[in-house]
């Protein structure tokens, strides 16, 4: 069965300080298998079959198109984002093209709108709690922790990190795509931001470190793309804030490409925590993406030889 299924709470109730809080329109979308019409990242998909499902339902998840024989990825967008806009669609489509994943995307767009960044930061805790409920729902239907990964961009990376706060056992793997830095670095306690303690395996991609993204040494393995701060293809964006935003979103596009290939272009060489190369360590290089070993530790520098663009408006 090839389907794109909408898992939606029109009203989500979560326990909060001995009362209940209503969170409107938190959606989970499932793409169960590669669409036959998908030929390029971001390309047209065949017509989608969508269905709203409450995770409190006892109807088996396989009836929604979930394949228990595939791995699972949960993708979470960041501030002012949505699961239906680039570059998050690039990431979703990359996993779909692989054909070995059930692809879930969390859409918290309605409570992550510009210009309310402070509100969005506060809402990450609630989204994480609801996503933990969804994760439990998924595992109750037979999904295993070892075959489930959470991939989050910006504030979405911190949401991935907070999921384990609401579980009896922490999740197996998290991939943080340039985890958000503004205000989080100053006011976000350890329990509310992504760290290597949030999963058994935490890989982090840095494309705007120190500005919109966190500085390295967040996860077990951190990858600095082109120095980790400003990306070459973004320097033509004019104003520095647009260069930073462009670079921030490049993490999703880089990782989408890396999901589909083990190309040498995504090979990282061990480097310092400030993303400076160390000569003579090329033999210890690792590939960034699906082929990154769980045992990888430290900071790696990835020098992209080709110019990539990544829509971000």
TrEMBL record:
<keyword id="KW-0964">Secreted</keyword>
<feature type="domain" description="Lipase">
    <location>
        <begin position="67"/>
        <end position="273"/>
    </location>
</feature>
<dbReference type="GO" id="GO:0005615">
    <property type="term" value="C:extracellular space"/>
</dbReference>
<dbReference type="GO" id="GO:0016298">
    <property type="term" value="F:lipase activity"/>
</dbReference>
<dbReference type="InterPro" id="IPR029058">
    <property type="entry name" value="AB_hydrolase_fold"/>
</dbReference>
<dbReference type="Pfam" id="PF00151">
    <property type="entry name" value="Lipase"/>
</dbReference>
<comment type="similarity">
    <text>Belongs to the AB hydrolase superfamily. Lipase family.</text>
</comment>
<dbReference type="InterPro" id="IPR013818">
    <property type="entry name" value="Lipase"/>
</dbReference>
<protein>
    <recommendedName>
        <fullName>Lipase domain-containing protein</fullName>
    </recommendedName>
</protein>
<dbReference type="InterPro" id="IPR000734">
    <property type="entry name" value="TAG_lipase"/>
</dbReference>
<dbReference type="GO" id="GO:0017171">
    <property type="term" value="F:serine hydrolase activity"/>
</dbReference>
<dbReference type="GO" id="GO:0016042">
    <property type="term" value="P:lipid catabolic process"/>
</dbReference>
């Amino acid at each position: 069965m090839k389907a794109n299924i909408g898992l939606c709470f029109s009203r989500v109730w979560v326990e909060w300080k001995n009362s209940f809080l209503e969170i409107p329109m938190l959606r989970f979308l499932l793409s169960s298998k590669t669409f036959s019409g998908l030929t390029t990242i971001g390309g047209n998909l065949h017509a989608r079959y969508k269905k709203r499902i409450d995770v409190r339902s006892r109807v088996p998840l396989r009836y929604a198109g979930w394949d228990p024989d595939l791995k699972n990825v949960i993708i979470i967008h960041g501030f002012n984002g949505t699961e239906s806009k680039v570059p998050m669609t690039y990431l979703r489509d990359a996993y779909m093209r692989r054909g070995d994943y059930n692809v879930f995307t969390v859409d918290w767009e309605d409570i992550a709108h510009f210009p309310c960044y402070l509100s969005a930061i506060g809402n990450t805790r609630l989204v994480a709690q609801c996503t933990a409920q969804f994760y439990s729902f998924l595992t109750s239907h037979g999904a295993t922790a070892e075959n489930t990964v959470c991939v989050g961009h910006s504030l979405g990376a911190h949401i991935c990190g907070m999921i384990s706060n609401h579980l009896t056992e922490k999740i197996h793997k998290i991939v943080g795509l340039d985890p958000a830095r503004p205000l989080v670095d100053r006011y976000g306690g350890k329990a509310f931001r992504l760290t290597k303690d949030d999963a058994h395996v935490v890989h982090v991609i840095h494309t705007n470190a120190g500005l919109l993204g966190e500085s390295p040494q967040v996860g077990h393995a951190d990858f600095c793309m082109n120095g980790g701060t400003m990306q070459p293809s973004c320097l033509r964006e004019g104003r520095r804030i647009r260069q930073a935003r462009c670079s921030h979103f490049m993490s999703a596009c880089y990782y989408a490409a890396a999901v589909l290939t083990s190309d040498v272009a995504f090979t990282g060489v061990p480097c310092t925590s400030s993303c400076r190369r160390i000569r003579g360590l090329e033999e210890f290089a690792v590939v960034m993406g699906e082929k990154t070993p769980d045992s990888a530790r430290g900071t790696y520098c990835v020098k992209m030889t080709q110019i990539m663009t990544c829509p971000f408006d």
